[in-house]
Specification:
Layout (H helix, E strand, L loop, with lengths): L7 H9 L5 H57 L6 H11 L4 E3 L2 E3 L4 E7 L4 E4 L13 H7 L5 E5 L8 E11 L2 E11 L4 H48 L13 H48 L5 H32 L8 E4 H11 L1 H7 L2 E5 L5 E4 L1 H18 L5 E9 L2 E9 L5 H4 L21 H11 L3 E6 L3 E9 L2
Parallel strand pairs: 9-11
Antiparallel strand pairs: 1-2, 3-4, 3-7, 5-6, 6-7, 8-10, 11-12, 12-14, 13-14
InterPro entries: HATPase_C_sf, HATPase_dom, His_kinase_dom, HisK_dim/P_dom, HisK_dim/P_sf, Sensor-like_sf, Sig_transdc_His_kin/Pase_MprB, TCS_sensor_his_kinase
Enzyme class: transferase
Keywords: Kinase, Membrane, Phosphoprotein, Transferase, Transmembrane, Transmembrane helix
Length: about 500
């Protein structure tokens, strides 16, 4: 049978379907389960509390009825139970004030009613003094008890009021192994209703609190799951863009740690393969130009030529060889730097001393170009980082500024520190960076011509950018009215 193919409309509807995060979906499922469980438990408990309490009351009435039956056996056998001391005690019992507080419910009167019948079911004693002489032989409590069975009944005083029922439990009065009467103990169900209400309130309160607590815990777990997924997604996204990022760690959800480890291993394998390919391609491309120049100069030197030209081409060979050496050295340094996922060493860096050292090493070039250098840095400025990498980055920035600064120009190095951030600004007077090149100056091997027409390796600013990223900072390069400004923003604790 050929099934119809889904139309584009179906796919469009699927795309419009709202994307609900996994954590929220799990929480909604958990929410439904908690609410359903709470409803089933509460409804079951609410149904069982009332009959359970009444069963417990009935069990107490059974014990009380049998105790009174034993006490009443002798007066009943003598035929003077109505005038006996037992009758007076029963009457006094009905008048007692218990003055008790049970679970916060005050009890000011005795709720039990006691009446005794003879062998024919005629009431001979009533603690309420209202049914003496009446025939109760048809009531189940008396009828069944006088026949040697368990006698009990529940009678409603008002058919329209379910709480008006009264529970009656009877016990046989025995004398010489013969039933000579019955004792019935009656208790209104309304008297136990406050305890049923309190039990229901407490059960519902605790059930609601536990449900809320369970939902809060479920929400926290769902949030943690969603956060962990977003961490992994962000980690994978940054890896895909080639950014340096630390592998996320998970202390509770170790399964995510396994996944992040797998992503990290995959990144290393892919980065290693891709890096070797890019390294070979870029190195081949960059070495082609100096090798061609060296080959051309060597071919000319093999032909008869003047001494001046020999010196010129020999100097050209030396210059291109030096350029190749610098290119290889910087590529090796950059290769090592790019393989670092995070800083290996951290120490307190004395920035003023470091800037003074860089200034001293470049003093000859400053004097040659007659460049004025200004360093503004508080003597107390210090931050934590890798001193060697920061030193190399500042050397690259300073040399780059010297390459582009105009004759008798100025280089200003300003260091400012605010709460949580350190800014190193290297500004030089001279030609501005063209607009088309501003976004590319940190690319590997991208270089602009100096005043002498020569280009650098194009790795200096890329190296600086990598160092700044390792320190969790940012690099800002922009033109100023007088020249170019390069700012390093480094976070401080």
């Amino acid at each position: 049978m050929n099934l119809p193919k889904p139309t584009n409309t179906v796919f469009a509807r699927l795309k419009r379907w709202p994307k609900i995060p996994l954590g929220l979906r799990l929480f909604l499922l958990y929410f439904v389960l908690v609410i359903l469980t709470a409803y089933l438990v509460s409804s079951t408990v609410m149904r069982e509390i009332k009959p359970t309490v009444r069963q417990a009351s009935e069990e107490t009435l059974v014990d009380m009825a049998n105790m009174l039956a034993v006490i009443a056996s002798n007066p009943m056998a003598n035929g003077d139970i109505a005038q006996s001391a037992f009758a007076k005690q029963i009457n006094f019992y009905g008048l007692r004030d218990p003055d008790a507080a049970i679970w916060g419910v005050e009890k000011k009167s005795v709720n039990h009613r006691v009446y005794i019948t003879d062998q024919q079911g005629i009431v001979v004693l009533d603690s309420w003094q209202q049914d003496v002489g009446n025939d109760f032989s048809k009531w189940n409590d008396v009828y069944l008890t006088l026949r040697g069975e368990y006698g009990a009944r529940s009678t409603a005083l008002d058919p329209n009021d379910p709480l008006s029922t009264v529970m009656h439990v009877a016990a046989p009065i025995m004398y010489n192994d013969e039933i000579i009467g019955s004792v019935t103990v009656a208790k209104a169900n309304r008297s136990v209703q406050p305890f049923i209400d309190i039990s229901r309130y407490r059960v519902l309160t605790w059930l609601a609190l536990m449900s809320v607590l369970a939902l809060i815990i479920g929400a926290l777990i769902a949030w943690r799951i969603n956060t962990a997924l977003y961490k992994l997604a962000d980690y994978a996204d940054k890896m895909g863009r080639g950014e340096k990022t630390s592998k996320p760690t998970f202390r509770v959800f170790y399964e995510y740690s396994l996944l992040s480890d797998a992503l990290e291993n995959m990144r290393r394998q892919l980065d290693g393969k891709r890096y070797v390919e890019n390294y070979v391609q870029t190195l081949t491309h960059e070495l082609k130009s100096p090798l061609s120049a060296i080959k051309g100069a060597s071919e000319i030197l093999q032909t008869p030529t003047t001494v001046d030209k020999q010196q010129l081409f020999a100097q050209n060979i030396e210059t291109e060889a030096t350029r190749m050496q610098q290119l290889i050295d910087k590529l090796l340094a950059l290769t090592k730097l790019e393989q670092l996922p995070e800083l290996e060493q951290r120490q307190l860096i004395d920035l003023p001393a470091l800037l003074a050292q860089i200034k001293a090493s470049c003093i000859s070039r400053l004097m040659t170009k007659q460049v004025e250098l200004s360093v503004v840095c508080d003597n107390k400025v210090a931050f934590v980082g890798d001193q060697f990498l920061i030193q190399q980055a500042l050397y690259n920035l300073f040399e780059n500024a010297l390459d582009f600064v105009c004759e008798q120009g100025k280089i200003n190095i300003t260091v400012t520190q605010t709460a949580g951030e350190l800014c190193i600004n290297v500004e030089n007077t001279g030609p501005k960076i063209p607009d088309y090149a501003l976004k590319r100056v940190t690319e590997r091997f991208y270089s602009l011509a100096r005043s002498n027409g020569q280009k650098s390796t194009g790795l200096g600013l890329n190296f600086v950018e990598q160092v700044v990223k390792l320190h969790k900072g940012k690099l800002d390069i922009h033109n100023t009215p007088q020249g170019v400004s390069v700012k390093l923003f480094l976070p401080t604790p």
